[in-house]
Amino acid sequence: MAVRCSPEALEKSEIVTSILQHGHRQTIKSAIIVSRLWFECAFPIAWVFKAATKLASVENAERRQMYASEIKHLNRDTADFLHYLKPTVTSLELGAVGWDDNDFKIAADFAGQLKDTYFHEVGLRASPSAIGNFLASCTSLESANLALLGRDLDFDKAEYFVALANLPHLKFLAGVSYLKPETLRPMVQPVPEPFVSLCYLSSAASAAAIPMVFMIARNITELDLYVQDGEPAEMQGISNLERLRKLYFQVGSLSILTK
Predict the structure, then answer these.
(1) What are residue 144's DSSP bridge partners?
(2) Which of 239, 241, 235, 236 is nearest to 216 (CA)?
(3) Distance between CA 177 and CA 40 in Å, rounded?
(4) DSSP 3-state assignment of 78?
(5) What span, in angstroms and rounded, lies between the C-alpha atoms of 104 and 87?
(6) Rounded to an integer, what distance in angstroms lies between the CA atom of residue 99 and that of residue 162?
(7) In the chain, % of residues over pLDDT 90
(8) Could you write out the DSSP letters of every residue in 201-244?
């Protein structure tokens, strides 16, 4: 059944955008030439149908940058084109791309605009310091999922965890490989108030690290921990988590959920 709407409705950007988001590629291309309003609504959606690497075929640098400014999400196919283009993105997803130190250095140029990141096995060619410098540049980051950031990295010495602790807007942190006292101890002195905005933390952890987790995550509201090497020896530090609303513990085959 056809749905009718008034001509006035098609002059509202939120309605036009909602319609075009469900359109086919040819529909989007046609909408660009309808009017200036429709162009502004359709142009960002049009790039959803294109891989970011297609920008390599755009010879005019100014036009290429204009197109790039409409890309808000980068995924695992974009490592090469970072070398000549600095897009304005708010979301970065990397999976098994093998970024090296230079890739992370280039990506740091736009990292200040990122709101969320998802990393899956991206640290196999990059050093902890390169990843740490990149994360330290993510000054607006609100969500970080570091699923299997790099199996070959020594997480105990990784600078990127200290970099995350300094981010002022980070609210969600998941997928941290394995927390040990050695991982957390460096933050006690150089980071006086680590994870100041963190609300959610999900991680595997050593039983000996649990008291330190309670120490650094004072503003946490939801905590999800998988303890791999026995029961935590101390729990009294949990009283410092005044805002904690939900706690999930998995110790071996035993799961504990409190609300």
Answers:
(1) 117, 173
(2) 241
(3) 42
(4) coil
(5) 14
(6) 21
(7) 11
(8) EEEEE-GGGHHHHHHH-TT-SEEEEEE-SS--S--GGGGG-TT-
- In whole angstroms, what is the distance from residue 51 CA to residue 148 CA? 25
Please tell me whether residue 181 adopts helix, strand or coil conformation: helix
- pTM given for the model: 0.73
**Which string of b and e fits 15-54 if b means at least 16 CB within 10 Å?**
ebeebbeeeeeeebeebbeeeeebeebbbbbbbeeeebee
Which tokens hold the place of 77?
Answer: 């196919």
Return phi, psi of residue 100, to 5°.
Answer: -105, -175
With 0-12 CB in 10 A as exposed, 13-18 as middle and 19+ as buried, what is 141?
buried
Q: Is 50 left (phi over 0), alpha (psi -120 to 50) or beta?
A: beta
Which tokens belong to 218?
């004072």
> 51 Cβ partners below 8 Å, 6+ apart?
77
CA count, 13 A, side-chain hemisphere, 82: 24
Q: How many angstroms separate the CA atoms of 188 and 185, rounded?
A: 6
The two structure tokens encoding residue 107:
């990506």
- Tell me: the pLDDT tens digits for 188-213? 655 567 888 999 998 888 888 888 88
